[in-house]
Amino acid sequence: MTISAERLLWQTVVLTAFLDATVEVKETSTKETKNNLRDADRWIRAGGRSYREVCELAGINGEFMRARYIAGQVDPDLLRASKTGARNR
After folding, report:
1. If you average pLDDT over residues 3-10, what whole number do you get?
2. Residue of 71, 70, 51 whose CA lies nearest to 62
3. Whole-Å CA distances, 16 to 1, 19, 37, 38
4. Comparing 14 with 24, which gets the higher pLDDT?
5. pTM of the model
6. Burial class (CB in 10 A: 0-12, 13-18, 19+), 36
7. In a 10 Å sphere around its CB, with 0-12 CB exposed, 13-18 middle and 19+ buried, how is residue 32 labelled?
8. Structure-model confidence comparison of residues 1 and 5, the more confident one
């Protein structure tokens, strides 16, 4: 099965948001970085219209992912491995 470039782009957007939301904020992080990481967390937790639309465009069950994230069941190491694997295709 071939994934369209558009779908792959939206999948990358969702993956990046989950990666950003699961990064441990460091004391040395810039204010902008801290804000971006918090924004990713809020975007996922809120599960609003833009989140749902992006997940739909990505072909991802957004509510399932959101529920797992809120329950602390999203493994950032697996997400990073997914992103690396996608880049090597």
Report:
1. 93
2. 51
3. 23, 5, 10, 13
4. 14
5. 0.84
6. middle
7. exposed
8. 5
Q: How far apart, in Å, are the Cα atoms of 66 and each of 6, 21, 46, 61?
A: 22, 11, 9, 9
Q: Answer with the residue of higher pLDDT: 79 or 6.
A: 6
Q: Give the C-alpha separation, 85 to 89, whole Å.
A: 7
Neighbours of 45 (CB within 10 A): 13
Domain that holds residue 75: 5-87
Per the structure, the count of domains in the chain is 1
Q: What is the DSSP letter of 71?
A: T
Note the pLDDT of residue 79: 82
Q: Tokens 């558009």 sit at which residue? A: 6
Q: Is the dihedral angle over the CA atoms 78, 83, 87, 89 positive or is it negative?
A: positive
Q: Which two tokens stand for residue 15?
A: 């993956």
pLDDT at 86: 52
